């Protein structure tokens, strides 16, 4: 499916979810519970199962993820704030597959972040930033390369930033062995950091979520040290990145080992 079309459809579904909650801007429920069923756990509000934007039951495959999602709903105050419900958003996407995408196509889309990875696009000036990137990014790239046994290209020339086909092939094989839930968790983390490598490295606990967010914002952080911080804008963006990266990584770990019968539109399982 065309990438722009996919993004458009996903945005429409996200807006539908937001519109649904806006219709219930005030918290309309008292109790949030988990209901064990054959395929996992249903998230319920006052004994009624929450529905996804496409009208499917909000059914998660394991209890830890169910508790975390239920807690997002439980923590809502008098108003429902979707910006602090990242696990629910990822669940909706994983359940609905709103773009009607195959597993292979989704993985290929994730690999686009590898081709244009934030930490592989080096600056050629100023000297302080070049040195900072070498000090902070290069060890992460080296560790990632060694982990997968691949070559990773990093350069200051956008025209030369093309990753080797063999590296892409090995990474695709790795992702294709993950279940649907893990893939959507990583996809969300990659989208918020504009990096393939950073969420993958965090998933292996080599660096923390906070460190990964810092590395994804290295040029911004460098500018802040030089020119000062626009406190509200920068901190809000940083907080949002931290929340969604952490959610994606939690999603990945909570669902590890889950056997998934999802048929990916009967194309690729």
From TrEMBL:
Compartments in which it is found: Mitochondrion
Domain of life, per lineage: Eukaryota
UniProt keyword list: Chaperone, Mitochondrion, Transit peptide
Gene Ontology CC: mitochondrion
InterPro entries assigned to the protein according to its UniProt record, in alphabetical order: ATP12_ATP_synth-F1-assembly, ATP12_ATP_synth-F1-assembly_N, ATP12_ortho_dom_sf
Biological process, per Gene Ontology: mitochondrial proton-transporting ATP synthase complex assembly
Recorded family membership: Belongs to the ATP12 family.
Protein name per the record: ATP synthase mitochondrial F1 complex assembly factor 2
């Amino acid at each position: 499916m065309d990438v722009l079309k996919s993004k458009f459809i996903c945005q429409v579904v996200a807006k539908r979810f937001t519109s649904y909650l806006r219709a219930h801007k005030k918290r309309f429920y008292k109790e949030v519970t988990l209901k064990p069923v054959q395929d996992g756990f249903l998230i319920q509000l006052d004994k009624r199962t929450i529905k996804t934007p496409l009208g499917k039951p909000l059914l998660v495959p394991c209890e830890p993820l169910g508790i975390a999602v239920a807690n997002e709903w439980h923590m809502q105050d008098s108003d429902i704030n979707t910006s602090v419900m990242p696990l629910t958003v990822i669940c909706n996407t994983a359940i609905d597959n709103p773009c009607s995408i195959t597993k292979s196509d989704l993985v290929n889309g994730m690999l686009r972040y590898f081709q244009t990875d934030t930490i592989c696009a080096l600056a050629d000036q100023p000297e302080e930033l070049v040195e900072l990137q070498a000090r902070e990014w290069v060890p992460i790239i080296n560790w990632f390369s060694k982990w997968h046994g691949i070559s990773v290209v990093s350069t200051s020339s956008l025209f030369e930033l093309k990753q080797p086909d063999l590296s892409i092939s090995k990474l695709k094989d790795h992702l294709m062995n993950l279940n649907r839930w893990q893939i959507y968790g990583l996809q969300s983390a990659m989208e918020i950091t504009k990096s393939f490598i950073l969420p993958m490295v965090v998933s292996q606990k080599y660096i923390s979520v906070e460190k990964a967010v810092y590395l994804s914002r290295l040029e911004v952080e460098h500018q802040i040290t030089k020119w000062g911080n626009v406190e509200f804008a920068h901190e809000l963006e940083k907080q949002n990145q931290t929340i969604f990266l952490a959610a994606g990584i939690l999603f990945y770990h909570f669902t590890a080992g889950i056997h998934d019968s999802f048929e990916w539109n009967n194309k690729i399982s």
